[in-house]
């Protein structure tokens, strides 16, 4: 069995039996991208690794449970992440770096700016995916700036390299977009990219919904990473709610009503009325009856009498 492939997919949390089965079907020299595609097609999902896993391998720990070996975590996950109220962040490193480099240079500083923005907001699970060949010395046709940043982010367990190799002098690159979408989907997180991943949307209907609902686009304005305040459009959630597992109530509920006590909208008023203790239940008519101590049923009978001919 190809041990490097086995180790790589074990790190992603796949079952050894499933990996062996796929490698037997596709052959030991199959590309990592094809192996991943076949694992998805089989319906295999990452799970906890076997207890006899090697120390270099990472273990998927169930939420809320205590791991017997706290050093082994899925893709270097922080312990605090399980109780975190913010969504995991998965960054398309190539997209962000090329965007910051004005589509001409692979600017690693752009990746750092994006990571820092999410860190400052309090996100503990941040992963950046970049193809492995970006480790190589830059060439004229693929310039790269601030390459040392990639090394620093890798040491912090934030940056993950997607596999690539050379066959007869030609570079064979795995499809990093599939890793980005798959990890974000399984972590129920947010994808940071200006790519729409249309081919992956067509490949998997569940991914289609996920990409539509969880894609966070962005801009760089004078070296400032800036996502939109309304990621899903004017009628969608705010940026804070989009990045949170538990959205907070809309702020307008707590804005005082401009009409104050003169408001005639009753329980249909969208603004806050400090003078109404039971705003959601009582209409203006019911409030007036309550003030004059007229029973609710009697008030309704009176209304019927007045309405009848």
TrEMBL record:
Statement: the UniProt record of this protein carries the keyword Zinc-finger: yes
Zinc finger (C3H1-type) boundaries: 251-276
The keyword Magnesium is annotated on this UniProt entry: yes
GO molecular function, one term: RNA endonuclease activity
Gene3D superfamilies reported for this sequence: 3.40.50.11980
Domain spans labelled C3H1-type: 251-276
Similarity comment text for this entry: Belongs to the ZC3H12 family.
Entries under PANTHER family matching the protein: N4BP1-RELATED, RIBONUCLEASE ZC3H12D-RELATED
Name of the featured protein: ZC12D ribonuclease
Gene name as annotated: Zc3h12d
């Amino acid at each position: 069995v190809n041990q490097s492939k086995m180790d790589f997919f074990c790190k992603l949390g796949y079952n050894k039996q499933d990996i062996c089965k796929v490698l037997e079907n596709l052959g030991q020299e199959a590309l990592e991208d094809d192996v991943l595609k076949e694992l998805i097609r089989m319906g295999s999902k990452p799970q906890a690794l076997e207890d006899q896993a090697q120390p270099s391998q990472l273990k998927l720990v169930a939420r809320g449970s205590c791991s017997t070996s706290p050093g082994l975590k899925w893709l270097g996950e922080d312990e605090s992440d399980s109780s975190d109220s913010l969504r995991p962040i998965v960054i398309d490193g190539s997209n962000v770096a090329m965007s910051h480099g004005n589509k001409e240079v692979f600017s690693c500083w752009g990746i750092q700016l994006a990571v820092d923005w999410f860190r400052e907001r309090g996100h503990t699970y941040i992963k950046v995916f970049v193809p492995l060949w970006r480790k190589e010395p830059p060439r004229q046709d693929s310039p790269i700036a601030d390459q040392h940043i990639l090394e620093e982010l890798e040491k912090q367990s934030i940056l993950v390299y997607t596999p690539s190799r050379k066959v007869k002098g030609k570079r064979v690159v795995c499809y990093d977009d599939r890793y980005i979408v798959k990890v974000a989907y399984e972590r129920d997180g947010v994808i940071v990219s200006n790519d729409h991943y249309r081919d992956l949307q067509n490949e998997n209907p569940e991914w289609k919904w996920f990409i539509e609902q969880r894609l966070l686009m962005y801009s760089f304005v004078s070296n400032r990473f800036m996502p939109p305040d309304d990621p899903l459009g004017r009628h969608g959630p705010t940026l804070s709610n989009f990045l949170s597992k538990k959205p907070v109530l809309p702020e307008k509920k707590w804005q005082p009503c401009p009409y104050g006590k003169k408001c005639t909208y009753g329980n249909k008023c969208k603004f806050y009325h400090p003078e109404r203790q039971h705003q959601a239940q009582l209409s203006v008519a019911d409030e007036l009856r309550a003030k004059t101590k007229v029973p609710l049923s009697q008030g309704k009978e009176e209304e019927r009498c007045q309405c009848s001919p």
